[in-house]
Amino acid sequence: MRWQALFDDLEAQAEAMAAAELRGEVSDRTRRELGLLRLADRLREGEGHPLAVTVWGAGAVHGRLVDAGIDWLLIEETGVREVLVPLGSVLGISGIGARAAVPGSEGEVGRRLDLRWALRGLARDRAGVTVVLRDGSAVTGTLDRVGADHVDIAEHPAGEPRRAGAVRQVRLIPLTALALLRST
């Protein structure tokens, strides 16, 4: 009878040690998996949610997350206009829940749809934009070209189409200087 109690005690100790080891392994795996998450993975799961984004040189942008790429996000401000924000200009985001997409689940095509791809779409559509730079200054016009590391914007008054007579100048802007682009 005493031996049975001894064996029961040893078995309980072994089970407790195994449970503690499993908890430690789960914690390690969880930390490792969280360490692989990118901001883009969190944003992809937040599509459709209202959020507030603090942007370097442009203050806060409030609206609904429409889409997110590997290095950009698209926000609809109060149903009026859209704002394209390079992730490199983001200082903080609130309103995104704890959910996240699996890292790398955007696929090969998704990885190629970077900020330059989004900017080329605006240039192709000849969309009027207001470009806010990281220093807080703004330029209105139409994106003419998108290079590897810069954009060419034909400056003209907001609301006017890009016509040779309306263009004041063409300015080259490094991608790293962009805070956001707002549709006009």
Task: Report on the architecture of this protein.
With 184 residues, the protein is an alpha+beta fold. The protein has a single domain (39-183), classed as SH3 type barrels (Roll). The protein has helices spanning 2-36, 39-44, 107-112, 115-125; strands spanning 50-55, 59-68, 72-77, 81-86, 90-94, 128-133, 138-146, 150-155, 169-174, 178-183. It has a ten-stranded antiparallel sheet.
Q: How many structural domains in the coordinates?
A: 1
Any idea what the radius of gyration is?
25 Å
Helix percentage range: 25-40%
What integer is the average pLDDT? 86
Computed structural class: alpha+beta
Examine the coordinates and then state which fold CATH places here, giving the name of the CATH topology. SH3 type barrels
How would you write the strand order of the largest sheet? 5-1-2-3-4-10-6-7-8-9
CATH architecture: Roll
Number of helices: 4
Low-confidence stretches: none
Q: State the assembly state of the protein chains.
A: single chain
Query: Biggest β-sheet, characterized?
Result: 10 strands, antiparallel
User: How many runs of DSSP E, i.e. beta strands?
Assistant: 10
User: How does the overall form come out from the CA principal axes?
Assistant: elongated
Distance between the termini: 86 Å
Report the order of strands and helices: HHEEEEEHHEEEEE
The CATH C-level name is: Mainly Beta
